[in-house]
Design goal:
The complex is a heterodimer of chains A (about 475) and B (about 250).
Chain A lengths: L3 H14 L11 E3 L6 H10 L4 H15 L23 E3 L13 H9 L13 E7 L2 E5 L2 H6 L3 E4 H7 L1 H7 L10 H9 L4 E5 L8 E7 L10 E6 L4 E9 L6 E4 L2 E6 L4 E8 L11 E12 L5 E8 L4 E4 L2 E4 L5 E10 L4 E10 L5 E11 L3 E10 L7 E11 L4 E10 L5 E10 L2 H9 L4 H17 L4 H14 L6
Parallel strand pairs in A: 3-7, 6-8, 7-9, 8-11, 9-12, 10-13, 11-13, 12-14, 13-15, 13-16, 14-17, 15-18, 16-18, 17-19, 18-20, 19-21, 20-22, 21-23
Antiparallel strand pairs in A: 1-2, 3-4, 5-6
Chain B lengths: L1 E12 L2 E12 L3 E5 L6 H9 L4 E10 L2 E2 L5 H6 L2 E4 L6 E5 H15 L7 H14 L10 E2 L5 H15 L3 E5 L7 H13 L6 E6 L3 H5 L4 E6 L2 E6 L2 H9 L8
Helix pairs in contact in B: 5-6
Classes of the chains: A alpha/beta (about 475), B alpha/beta (about 250).
């Protein structure tokens, strides 16, 4: 039997371990004072050396944003956000133009090492290229040269705007227009950095591409902008990861991600989101308000979203597919976890426009502590979408009595030949199950993890191997102490 | 030497006292049967030994191999060699049987200071054991107990018993819901596990099971206490006269 003080130590260790990415990097940054007006927008655009048309895009978005009101329909509650109280630009100070990683501040490199994302190519997980975004700027992108040989462009969004303006101009805002919603408009005005990926016709990207987002500076919002264009017959698998330091204040991450898949192209987009969730009492944490949408523009194209959402104080996120090309396929696989005071309102939209389009939705919501989980999903079958099919599976697992899970499906069918199926379950871990597993020698946490992993496995198996392991570990860490 | 010793055990469930001064000694290598009418506290006895939450020991002690179990959780007791075959094995959807079995086997092996089994070695061990309870390996590719028939569930529990190699086994009404053929298979599996070191406690309503698993000692549990103990001839007597005539310890 463990003595009282020893078990208290174990508990303390768990609590401290709980958010391992919560450290702050001590680095000199150039940070804009809080506040947002047209000058802020011009400053950001100027910092990035952007072409005039892009500044115009930002300004139009900003002016439109001023006319909008923050949406309130989501099942989440939070104090009013003061958009004038946060900074819209923060970047670690660098001297001149960096030629290689050796010139990057060692403190930054150490940050990514600590997070398990080494930026030196020789140290990287085999077959994964990384773009590292720190606050408002991209620090480094690896394997660029090898990818270039195949004609693949993988770089920061800022670089793409300078080096490949024609590609950006053709697609920016084509899937998520700046008029789309409040946060998309805000993002379009002040977006900082993110990744740009271009896969040429017929090319199968030989490695996983990934972006690692890190918020470091306090009182700073991060406005990620990512664009992926997959030409005819191409394939790419992309993964993003996110962390932030533990702070008492809330910070905003308002991203826009646009995906374009042309004929027979396939984009697989995976997210392991581990923004700081706030403490057990709900103090601090990231507000994760993002708009992610892909269009299957060409025939028989495919977009697949897989997300594992364990972090953030509040998640407001609906990665969606517009199935425009005939025979195109959209998929959404999601595990979202809310522990303590976390709130997640997440789901997807599958918009079937083309004939014989198919979509699959598998959503797994886990709520523990005082967590709030809402699945919100729209399946729309348009008039001309003959033979469209959707299958939705929506499962909730409740751990403990103080958490909640809601399912809010919207189904709009305008074509008689459509097949739409929706299944939903809500379950708990019963005392009987826990006792049965423990009677076989498993510790309580192991028993809970076994059940939770079983609950999530349909989604985990969609993730690239290394990240599936990481996702499983994250869920386990996030649920430590959730039962008992 | 006694493997299991229960002294003056008082167990309360909620506010209700169920066991009120139960004494039991089971020497190593012996099989004891506990019989008794409904509501006598038979399942409470098995849960109290296995350490289920909500079964509060208010007085007395339970020792295995001389060590008190009372301060230990159900998982720690299992790792020390207590195994409970459930009256109603629990379905755990989403949890695949095979990985679960390996996790359980390795948890107890680790506690015994044995090397953990890698997937290959485990599979060999599993296949050999499956044969002994006449279960198909296909069952282990399904979710734990999910959609198993009543007989499959019981045999699957006996499979786990054989895999975990416990020191002390409790069979809680393992015969309930089994037809005669299934019961024979279960009994054969149990009998194959009788060794000079291992003890068993067989809880049952009926004589039937005890024709197949022949006990060394039979106890009558009534009103929260062991009222009478004897050899297996007591079974026939109970069958003939019912529990009514057993009135005092």
């Amino acid at each position: 039997m463990v003595s009282m003080s020893a078990s208290a130590e174990v508990i303390a260790e768990f609590t401290e371990k709980k958010y391992a990415a919560g450290f702050v990097t001590d680095i000199e940054s150039e940070t804009l004072p809080p506040g947002l007006d047209e000058d802020t927008v011009r400053f950001i655009s100027g910092k990035k050396d952007e072409p005039e048309w892009l500044l115009e895009f930002r300004l139009k978005a900003y002016r439109h944003w001023l006319t909008l009101e923050e949406p309130t329909w989501a099942h989440v509650g939070y104090p009013e956000i003061d958009y004038q109280a946060m900074s819209y630009w923060s970047a670690p100070k660098v001297k001149g133009n960096l030629k290689s990683l050796d010139e990057v501040d060692p403190e930054l490199l150490r940050t990514y090492e600590k997070l398990g994302i080494p930026l030196y190519e020789r140290a990287i997980l085999a077959g994964v290229a990384v773009d590292a975004v720190f606050d408002s700027v991209s620090i480094a992108t690896t394997y660029k040269d090898q990818l270039k040989e195949k004609g693949i462009i993988f770089c920061s969004f800022s670089e793409a705007a300078r080096e490949h303006p024609e590609l950006i101009k053709a697609s920016l805002g084509s899937v998520v227009p700046y008029t789309d919603n409040y946060f998309a408009a805000l993002n379009s005005a002040v977006f900082s950095d993110g990744s740009f990926i271009y896969i040429p016709k017929g090319v199968r990207c030989p490695m996983e591409l990934s972006t690692y987002f890190r918020i470091n500076e306090k009182k700073t919002g991060q406005f990620e902008r990512t664009l992926i264009v997959a030409e005819e017959g191409s394939y790419v698998s992309y993964l993003e990861g996110c962390t932030a330091p533990m702070r008492d204040e809330n910070q905003l991450h308002a991203a826009v991600v646009e995906l374009v898949a042309l004929e027979r192209a396939e984009i697989k987009y995976s997210t392991v989101q581990n923004w700081y969730p706030g403490d057990a009492e709900g103090k601090g944490g990231i507000y994760n308000f993002v708009t992610k949408r892909g269009v299957c523009r060409g025939r028989a194209s495919k977009i697949s979203w897989t997300q594992v959402e364990t972090g953030s104080a509040i998640t407001w996120k609906y990665p969606s597919c517009i199935l425009q090309g005939d025979d195109s396929v959209g998929e959404f696989y999601s595990v979202a976890l809310s522990n303590h005071r976390q709130q997640a309102d997440t789901g997807t939209k599958m918009i079937h426009l083309g004939k014989n389009t198919r979509s699959t939705i598998v959503s797994k919501g886990i709520a523990a502590g005082h967590g709030k989980q809402t699945y919100r999903g729209l399946v729309r079958i348009a008039k001309k979408a003959d033979g469209a099919r959707n299958h939705t599976q929506c499962d909730s697992l409740l751990l403990g009595g103080a958490c909640t899970a809601d399912t809010v499906p919207y189904i709009e069918v305008q074509n008689d030949s459509a097949q739409v199926e929706h299944e939903a379950t809500t379950s708990t871990i019963s005392d009987d199950q826990l006792f049965y597993l423990m009677q076989r020698g498993l510790g309580e946490e192991d028993a809970v993890n076994l059940i939770v992993n079983g609950f999530c496995k349909e989604v985990f198996r969609e993730l690239p191997m290394e990240f599936a392991v990481e996702a499983q570990r994250l869920i386990e860490v996030s649920l430590e102490g959730a039962i008992g | 030497m006694n493997l299991l010793e229960i002294d003056d055990l008082h167990v309360t469930v909620g506010e209700t006292p169920i066991l009120v001064g139960l004494n039991l000694r089971i020497p190593a290598g012996e099989v004891h049967a506990v019989m008794g009418p409904n509501g006598a506290g038979k399942s409470t006895l098995s849960y109290a030994v296995a350490g289920r939450e909500g079964y509060d020991v208010t007085k007395g002690d339970i020792r295995l191999g001389g060590e008190s179990l009372l301060a230990l959780g159900p998982d720690e007791r299992a790792r020390r060699g207590v195994f409970l075959a459930f009256q109603y094995p629990v379905e755990v959807p989403g949890v695949r049987s095979k990985p679960f079995l390996r996790a359980a086997v390795n948890a107890v092996r680790k506690a015994r200071g044995q090397a953990e089994l890698d997937p290959g070695a485990f599979l060999k061990f599993l296949r050999k054991t499956l044969e002994s309870v006449r279960l198909d390996e296909a069952l282990t590719n399904r979710d734990l107990n999910s959609g198993f028939s009543g007989g499959e569930k019981k045999r699957f529990d006996i499979l786990q018993m054989a895999l975990l190699e416990p020191r002390f086994c409790i069979l809680d009404e393992t015969d309930s819901g089994l037809d005669i053929d299934a019961m024979r298979v279960v009994a054969d599996g149990v009998n194959a596990m009788r060794t000079p070191e291992r003890s068993m406690l067989v809880i049952t309503h009926y004589q039937r099971l005890l024709d197949y698993i022949v006990p060394d000692v039979v106890h009558v549990l009534k009103d929260g206490r062991i009222m009478r103990s004897g050899d297996k001839s007591l079974v026939a007597e109970l069958e003939a006269r019912g529990y009514e005539w057993v009135t005092s310890p």
